Every structure is written in structure tokens, then in C-alpha cells.
Amino acid sequence: MRAVIIMIFSLLFIGCGGGDCQFEDEIATQPVDIQIDRLEEKLFAAQSKADVIAFVKSNPNMANIFLDAQEYPSDTILAEKIFTLIKNPGMDTLYDEAVNTYANMSEIEDKLEVAFGKLKTLIPETATPKFQTIVTGMYKDIFITDTLIIVGLDFFIGNEATYKPQQVPYYILSRYNKKHLASIIVKYLAGQVVAAGKKPTLLSEMIDFGKTYYLTKRLMPCTPDSILLGYTPQDMELINSNEAVIWATFLENEVLYETSHITKRKFLGERPNIYEIDQKCPGRVGAWVGWQIVNSYMERNDVDIKTLISDADNDKIFMQSGYKPQSR
Predict the structure, then answer these.
(1) Would you say the pTM of this structure is higher than 0.85?
(2) Cα–Cα distance, 231 to 226 (Å, whole number)
(3) How many domains in the chain?
(4) What's the rounded mean pLDDT across residues 86-103?
(5) Is 12 part of any domain?
(6) What is the DSSP letter of 280?
(7) pLDDT in tens, 164-221
(8) Of the residues 202, 247, 280, 305, which has the fewest C-beta atoms closer than 10 A?
(9) Residue 9 placed within a domain
């Protein structure tokens, strides 16, 4: 089982396109029941340290992952810290805004049920993860494994929040909201089932991201690509209208087969802009190009999704893609 505690900017990749449901029936959807356990309501209902101790003992995984319970010499010391936190007047606003923003989570549940239902069709052994939410004063944001998902809702209140995560750069903060939450989870889990390329080149990693986005789009066929991208409408317009220029920059600078981590971070990592391409070119654009390559490969070849995501020969995928960027 692979797990990660993440700041969102370490996992959000990018893609392209519109927001209809053209792939809705491409993969059959098996019935899946996602139940979200609202632990923040139980925690903030505590009236004593004894109540907090009982809460911690009832939720050991969350306590260890989100509250670092194992680092405390006793449950009593941990409970005293948590009880002081939840009774802090400053937490009232944070808690109320988180609970009000997520008063109805049916849309998130529906999206995850569709995604996991489709993933089970492709990979029958896929588990249905337990899903929990919590509010911890912005201590940790999200934890994902194939069997357990924990979300710190106080990170995901959105632009209207009174208190915002201070450690998150401005160009990433726009993704910390309700409309992005389901896609964040599905993109991460999709990335875990996609076979990584055999070579540590920039091109191979671009195609890894492309395969992840291709799969995610099929698992969330009715989610607008703008949500999957984490780009603004202006960013999307820019990359779509300058695809040929972006690709020409990769070729002219001869970086596709670079293995330098510094070079790969320039084009795949989180940055406000990729100045090496253009002052306005958004970060992570290499992953977007990888998605275009994979789209072209799938259009030109008789390959199903299961074969694509299990194929580690990214050089072959590139060669057989016949990728030609569009000038719009």
C-alpha cells in the first residue's frame, strides 16, 4: 500500500480541453458506496479532555496521521493540547466555515463513486477507501492511500475563508477549495496505477503525467478539464493557442531527453510561470504537453486504456503518437 501526506502542489498535474461528458460510457461504472465520516463534528462536540481521549482512541489512524499522536508520551498530554485547540475562540470561525462549506458533500461522494466504480472495472482488485474529514487548525491538509483518505477541511474552504493556509503560494491556493477536492483525490490515485516510464528523461515523465491525466479524464468524464488542470481560464487559453510555440521551445532547447532534475522541475514542477518559454506561460506545462502526446497516441493506435496505463515504454508511445502540435 502506497501512501502520502501531501501539500496539493506536489501532486497536481495538468491537462487540456473542455468540460463535457464525452467519455461517460467509455468505461462501465460498477456500484460503489462512498461514506464520508465527519470526524470534525465528533471532535468539536467534546466537552472534556476525557471526551478527546475517547475520540483519539476511537480514531487511531487519523490521530496518528493528522495529530501525530504517537509522538506524545501519553493520550492525556495529547488530549490536553487538542482540547485547548478546539476551545480556542479563533477556531470557531475556522470550524464553522469548514462545516458550512461542506454541509453537503453529496456531489463529492457522487464523483468519487463514479471514479472508483470505473477504476474497479479496469482493475478489479481496487479497494473502496474509507473517507474521513477533520479540522485541525490547518495542521495537515490531505492523506491518501488506496484504503484510507483523510481530508483537513480547513485547508479547503476556498477563497472566501477568513483564514487561509499561509504556507501555500498564491498560484496554488486557488485549488484549495471544494470544487477541486474530488479531482485531487482521483488524480493522485490514478497516478499510482499508471506504469512509470523506463527512462528518467523529461519526455518520459511528461508522458507519465499524460497517462495519468488520460486515465483521470476517463474516471471523471463529467468534470470540466479546467478543474482537472488547476489552470485559470486565461492560462488555458494561452497554452491552447500557443501549443506549437511551446513544443518548439522544447525542441529548440533540446531538453526532451534531459535527465537533470533541475531541468525537469522547470517544466513539470510548480512555478507561477515558465519564463524559459514565456513570461506568461504557466507552470507544469510539460505535463500538459504529455497529455497531448498521449491523446494523439490513443487516437492513432488501437490500444485500450488498460494497455496504456500498464505500458512503461514511453519512447514507443511518443514515436507512435505522431504528435503534431496545433497552431490556433
Answers:
(1) yes
(2) 6
(3) 2
(4) 94
(5) no
(6) T
(7) 888 888 888 888 999 999 999 999 999 999 999 999 999 999 999 999 999 999 999 9
(8) 280
(9) no
